[in-house]
Amino acid sequence: MRRSLPALLLLCLPVTALAGRRPAPPPLAPDVRAQAAVLLGRSLASDEPWRELTQLADDVGPRLSGSEALNRAITWAAERMRDDGLTVTLEPVDVPVWVRGEEQGTILSPVADQLPLLGLGWTVATPPEGIDADVLVVASFDELTARAAEAKGRIVVFDVPFTTYGDTVKFRWAGPEAAAKVGAVAVLVRSVSPESLSTPHTGSTHYADGVPKIPAAAITLEDATRLHRWQESGKTPRLHLKLSGEDKGTAPSFNVVGELRGRERPNEVVVIGGHLDSWDVGQGAQDDGAGCVASMAALDQLAALPVHPRRTVRVVLFTNEEDGGAGGKAYAAAHANERIVYAIEDDTGAGVPLGFQVEAHTADEADDPNRATQVMSALAPWRDLLTPLGADKLSLGHSGADVGPLLAHGTIGFGLEHDMSGYWRVHHTEADTLDKIDPMMVRRNAAALTVFTWLLAETPELFDGTRPLQAQP
Ligand SMILES: [Zn+2]
Questions:
Q1: Are residues 190 and 264 in the same domain?
Q2: For residue 345, how far is its CA from the centre of ligand 1 (angstroms)?
Q3: Is 38 in the same domain as 13?
Q4: Cβ-Cβ contacts under 8 Å for 210 (sequence gap 6 or more)
Q5: pLDDT 10s digits, 209-232
Q6: What is this structure's pTM?
């Protein structure tokens, strides 16, 4: 329906009323502002991204790297973007493949009970019969060091409360290495989440060279704290663990790229996207199906305009974000000689959109806050266009794991920021399913991405991706 709207309608908008009156920096061209308002309205009226998210979640399902489901997701996404009239390319990426296999956790004493768990991504297997061992619970790496003599032959449990994701995820990532160094036979980490309804959260871990690889899994907050309480009361819990994780080498995969060629500056590119792969539990609805469909919706809206934006816009649906990051790295390497001026990532869920975080790097991948601050100043006159969505916050921050590798080439990175109050409780769990997502939020996120992408793609000169330029009316 959207496409049949006559172009005349756009020309009839009272553009002078929308032009703004700021003396400096000069306002955006009135037609750019008017078009942004039209795009916002159309995005909010479209249920296409929700329908697509339903297909991806229910009909494709969880899609770990190397799985048949991820291949189906790639085919599905390419077809959807061809339907939207985009030029679609599948860019080959070899991805590492890990499979979970059978998993079981049991509390043997002080009381017999189940121990729900999820193996961490890249965990090795236990012996086929499993492991029976006593537990040592610690609340930090320092405590593990202090109690190293007690760890030998035990299952080390890291019971570390969530503070920030960045701080807490260290125990999931480096816990197996630290526990193996002191002779532990396996490691369990309290799930990286501030809250829980008895839900274990998976996520990648890694092993260091020269250190034994021990099986590693996440347990629930409820069980981590219960084990801890038993230990503090003088008991020594004993567990049975069985994990079957297996490294399967590599498999061919693809980044899915849909392109709308710029009408005036086709060699300047704006990338928007998220990751199409997910963990093998739940449906990958929030992480990151929601980001994929919002990105696709944004480019679909731009493709439906009577004329293309000035710059080329590409949706990139990255592969292998969750357990390797090969898609993001491969994309940056393959396009290193192009002028990708801006890249926006949508990979923090489907909560209320709040605005955009801005990130700039130097060539050696150090943060460049001065450049990012200049970008924020240049963007300030646009903020009011996102105010109706509540998405007008601009802040220094992070873009995302997949567009991050582009930043060393001078690309300015943006991360769509969401209210994440409902995010962590389902992150990387069986509960990351469609029912947790509000369809209206999918529309609002798609609208925020659409308007912001339009501004980046259409504004003639604001900054060139490497240094701020003088804003022009
Ligand atoms: Zn994600």
A1: no
A2: 10
A3: yes
A4: none
A5: 999 999 999 999 999 999 999 999
A6: 0.91
